[in-house]
Amino acid sequence: MTTSVSDVTTEAAISAIVAAHRHQRGPLLEILHAIQSELGHVPKEAVPLLARELNLSRADVHGVVTFYHDFRDAPAGRTTVRICRAEACQALGASALVGCAEERTGLPLGRTSADGSVTVEQVFCLGNCALGPSVEVNGEVLGRMSAVRLRSILDEAVTS
Ligand code: FES
């Protein structure tokens, strides 16, 4: 297998992040957040690298990455829609929003469209419970979301 320039760049970026956080106690979570912040996702090749650098097993690192829904293993779409599925929003119609999103994009939650235009994910509480159901679009929390409004957002996302 050959190593591409982007592999080297990714590895170098991860190594720099590890070096910056190594001094912290139990730095794995901080490092994972920093990787996602810098690279937009936690690439699969980060797992063995972090295991080696932090003297952990690959299973330990993989377990943490997959436990937290915030970490994604591929870049997000140009528009990222996160639908809250925690209790308060669930009681106010979050399931209908999920159905709307899946129907409009043709994707299950957690996936990105093949053209990279949109990612739809679930999240468990956006801190906007009183104004649910809540949805976050590219970091902006929107309350009292309706299927019609969500559909309009997704229409715009998939055509841009
Ligand atoms: S339960 Fe949805 S924002 Fe808190």
TrEMBL record:
Cleavable signal peptide: none
Matching PROSITE patterns: COMPLEX1_24K (PS01099)
GO MF annotations in UniProt: 2 iron, 2 sulfur cluster binding; metal ion binding; oxidoreductase activity
Xref: Gene3D superfamilies: Glutaredoxin, NADH-quinone oxidoreductase subunit E
Name by which UniProt lists this protein: Formate dehydrogenase subunit gamma
Binding residues annotated for [2Fe-2S] cluster, in chain numbering: 84, 89, 125, 129
Keyword annotations from UniProtKB, A to Z: 2Fe-2S, Iron, Iron-sulfur, Metal-binding
InterPro entries named among the record's database cross-references: NADP_DH_HndA-like, NuoE-like, NuoE_N, Thioredoxin-like_sf
Cofactor note: Binds 1 [2Fe-2S] cluster.
Cofactor(s), names only, from the UniProt record: [2Fe-2S] cluster
Lineage: Bacteria, Bacillati, Actinomycetota, Actinomycetes, Kitasatosporales
Family (UniProt): Belongs to the complex I 24 kDa subunit family.
